[in-house]
Amino acid sequence: MKNQIRRIAGVAIAALIVSCGSTGAIVSPPIENIDATPLKTTELTSVESENWKDYDLVRDTIPGMSVNRAYEEILKGKNGKTVIVGVIDSGIDVGHEDLDGVIWINEDEIPGNGKDDDNNGYVDDVHGWNFLGDIVKENYEYERIVRDKSKLPQDIVTKAQKEYDEKVAEAKQVTSRYQQILQQINAVDPILEKETGKKDYTKEDVAAIKSDEETVQNAKAFANYIYGLGVSSLDDARSELENLIETNNARLNGTALTTNYRADILKDDPYKWDTGIYGNNKYSGPDPEMKDARHGTHVAGIIAAERDNGMGINGVSNNARIMVLRAVPDGDEYDKDIAKAIRYAADNGAKVINGSFGKYHSTNPEWVWDAIKYAASKDVLFVNAAGNEALNTDETQVYPQDQELAGTEVADNFITVGALNFEYGSDMVANFSNYGKSSVDVFAPGVAIYSTVPNDNYEKLGGTSMAAPGVAGIAAVIRSYYPKLTAAQVKQVIMNSGLPTQARVKVGGEEVQSFQELSVSGKMANLYNALIMASKM
């Protein structure tokens, strides 16, 4: 790494925390004046690339959340309180080598006895609950609305029908192109396997290929094109394309409007609230290989992967316990499941909930809003992913959200997170991230985040889905060391303590705007500063 200039208002000195939950103020000065920080001109090393969310902008010229610095200078030698974090997602590999020690255990439930020992309505809910049962694949909400339009209000149906018609038209145009790209991937894959000598070759392996043969050079150029789209491997690109083709074909042949996974598999009516307990305690879903739990396992690792255990990664929080709430299928989530999951978390001791999901249509948003308000009454902070369509969500309603479009917030315990890139400067906002001066609260690392995936593996994934758990991890740390702060206070600490910049940045990879105008706070979440501010409240 090139020699870096480190500028800060003062030299950080040893942090002082009198005890767990102490009100004693930390004497280290906060990070300030980041606009004086030089831009990083060298590529990230492999170690930096896998841990960039933890780095410090001033010390490392990488726009992480200053996690390492917080543990080195503020939290070293200190003990905090255990904090339960509910992860509403696709499921989690609870036996993962880097997560098995941080999974929440319901001490009031006797595992495997087939009884509801704690009388909360859920049988054998040792680590949480699976509200999807054996459902994996699901339709998008607008498809379900068009399918079930006789049961739903006309204004909801009209909006969904418009999007469905647009998606069908789009499918006709792009499906053949997707098939062509898939054919190209299948053609170059064996060439690159032969040249690298590896079946699971990396971007770096491809870059190291030395050959003058035209077929090899063409294969290498095509792979680099795919990598440039933000995909980490050709296998991932193949899988994504196959899903897109399958989805488009379902739209074109009409099966998207005839399939009803909910009725056929779960036997539950999503439009009726009082239907009793449904689902099961299969925390990773029905697939024995746990492919469905990839997203949720990745999110859980960002929040709480075991720190300093000599393997994998370090989660942001050292005292979090992950409550598994499987409610997000491969498709759009149901409002009913999300609302039930939020209430379960609030009733069973969670102090932070992470929601890395979202959609643009909703049949029963009031159920989710009521659940958010219920969580607020239980002093639970909900951390929400902003979405990945590069949209201004002040102008486009996204669900879940703590407000109707341009409306008043329903509660003060809800924080929405946009995604940052690792390149500080004009490209530091992820080109896919949603934004909004009134609807997005803060930004955090969300591009190529390295974390846990099922079966003791690790992988880089990107999205606001990866930015939200970074902030959920910060919230868990604050609630661990400063447990007297309320959920609303923790939200304000995270927003107010972030790093501000006057930089103008690309939005959607093109339009240039002031970073200050992209969120309520105009800041980047920062654990180091958050702890300093929390100590003074």
Automatic annotation (TrEMBL):
GO molecular function: serine-type endopeptidase activity
Catalytic residue list: D89, D235, H295, S465
Keywords: Hydrolase, Protease, Serine protease, Signal
GO BP: proteolysis
Positions of the Peptidase S8/S53 domain: 80-498
Matching InterPro entries: Pept_S8_subtilisin_bacteroid, Peptidase_S8/S53_dom, Peptidase_S8/S53_dom_sf, Peptidase_S8/S53_subtilisin, Peptidase_S8_Asp-AS, Peptidase_S8_His-AS, Peptidase_S8_Ser-AS, Peptidase_S8_subtilisin-rel
Signal peptide: 1-24
Gene3D superfamilies: Peptidase S8/S53 domain
Pfam hit, one: Peptidase_S8
SUPFAM superfamilies, alphabetized: Subtilisin-like
Protein family per UniProt: Belongs to the peptidase S8 family.
Protein name as annotated: Peptidase S8
